[in-house]
Amino acid sequence: MQPCCYQEALAAAVNTYNQESGLPQAYRLLEAEPQPQWDPSSQPAQPLKFSIKETECLVSEKRDVSQCPFKDKGLVKDCKGLYAEEKEPPVITAKCEDAGQEPQLVKRVNWPKSQAGYEDAVTTAVDIFNQESGLPQAYRLLEAEPQSEWNPSSQAAQPLKFSVKETVCPIAQKGNLKQCDFKENGLVKDCSGLFTAGKKPPVTAVKCEDTSQEPELVTRRKFWKKILNGALKIAPFFLG
């Protein structure tokens, strides 16, 4: 695939939104926020920021939206997305909300490397899953599998393993996920991802699959207790 320019990435994002929104009217690009550091050959996903406006064309007509006139008093939406050149399709998210309302977005964290803890990485991975899943309900961390060799300053990609459970909160609802109650009989998913401290966003390749068993809920205290227990188990081998 040839490197894509910013305008082409935006066009792909608008097309993705029109095909996945479920709305009858097609939307067309209205304004794009310049990205001075846009690098079409970059491997990490890069942000897209733009607004769109409702047109007179129907999505079902499959017309070139650049030829569709804007609808008189048509709705305007503010959008954000992520673009990754190596993925197919390259635009991996395209979320839009009515203008004046802040979209529910992926949490971007620029941690100092010394503070890039495993729990922080897992939290960001959960946010990415919620943003990209296309599911109506938000999911919350249920259990994180400790990684005893976790090194927050490593430049190499490191694995994340965790599980999430469906909550009562819609993704579109603003608020802290920690305040969302788990849904009774909510779905549970086993997840994996990769964390690379030197990349933006640092968490990539988040994948979650349904599981038939519900893992035990891990609190912050239990999370560190598990790591401590793991260290105690291997200590005798080093102490003789």
TrEMBL record:
Keywords: Antibiotic, Antimicrobial, Disulfide bond, Secreted. The keyword Coiled coil does not apply. One of its GO terms (biological process) is antimicrobial humoral immune response mediated by antimicrobial peptide. The keyword Secreted applies. InterPro entries: Cathelicidin-like (IPR001894), Cathelicidin_CS (IPR018216), Cystatin_sf (IPR046350). Gene3D superfamilies: 3.10.450.10. It is found in: Secreted. PROSITE patterns: CATHELICIDINS_2. GO terms for cellular component: extracellular space. Belongs to the cathelicidin family. This is Cathelicidin-related peptide Oh-Cath-like. It comes from Alligator mississippiensis (American alligator). The lineage of its organism: Eukaryota, Metazoa, Chordata, Craniata, Vertebrata.
